[in-house]
Amino acid sequence: MVANDGDGSVLPVRRNLWDVAELRVIRHEGLVPYETAWEEQRRLHAARVAGEIDDTVVLLEHEPVYTAGKRTKPSDRPLPGSGAPVVDVDRGGEITWHGPGQIVGYPILALPERVDVIGYVRRVEQLMIDVCAELGVDGVRVDGRSGVWIPADGRGPERKIGAVGLRVAQGVSMHGFALNCNCDLTWYDRIVPCGISDAATTSLAREAGRDVTVAEVLPHVERHLDDVLALQPHA
Q1: Annotation-wise, does 51 bind a ligand?
Q2: 91 a known binding residue?
Q3: Where, by residue number, does the polypeptide cross the bilayer (predicted)?
Q4: 149 is in an annotated binding site
Q5: Is pLDDT at 104 greater than 80 in this prediction?
Q6: Strand pairing partners for 172?
Q7: Would you list the domain boundaries of the chain?
Q8: pTM higher than 0.70
């Protein structure tokens, strides 16, 4: 059944879960301040831990912000006057940027007790790889590095197009993924994104050679959510 609870819309997703339930997808219009989304994540996470809601994915664009994970080094942070706030968060990884022209997804999912968290991260990466492919861009994984990358070619070195930063607490995931659509890539010049100094960043628009908006990418992301959620407990 598809319902609407006022916070967003419930997307009917075919699921292959140990505990079949509806997936609620909350889509926010406009640019959302990071602190607002962070508070929403914490509220949804607590409700999912308590069994008060079904699995939920929040999809949005942020106002410009740098978020610093637990492994961020001081030298990787932007200098004062960077034009965007820096928010320290409780996810893994280092520092990254979020803002206009980038689609961000926060899956709040109750994971199996014996779930392979690294395997879950790979599923999230696969979602972005599949979305890129549908838009004519060949994204890949790179050994030893998280996220989705464009291989080195005549146009430049390896470059990151999608990021993953997750946390699992009390068996429920939070934080999530970010895929660059048509964002201003100069924001990344002010940091060492994800702590990797020898790689560049890119976007779907740059790689496809045309404007690729968040509005165009959103339906592709929603269609592939089932790939992320088709989790099975490990024997």
Answers
A1: no
A2: yes
A3: none
A4: no
A5: yes
A6: 110, 169
A7: 9-229
A8: yes
pLDDT in tens, 40-91: 999 999 999 999 999 999 999 999 999 888 777 777 787 777 888 888 888 7
Would residue 132 show up in a list of annotated catalytic residues for this protein? no
Separation of alpha carbons 129 and 11, rounded Å: 21
Q: End-to-end distance of the chain based on CA atoms, in angstroms?
A: 31
Measuring CA to CA, how many Å separate 53 from each of 22, 30, 39, 179?
A: 9, 25, 16, 26
Q: Is 6 annotated as a binding residue?
A: no
The torsion angles phi and psi of 35, rounded to 5 degrees, stand at -60, -35
pLDDT value of position 145 = 85
19-35 tens-digit pLDDT: 445 788 999 999 999 99
> Has 178 been labeled as part of a binding site?
yes
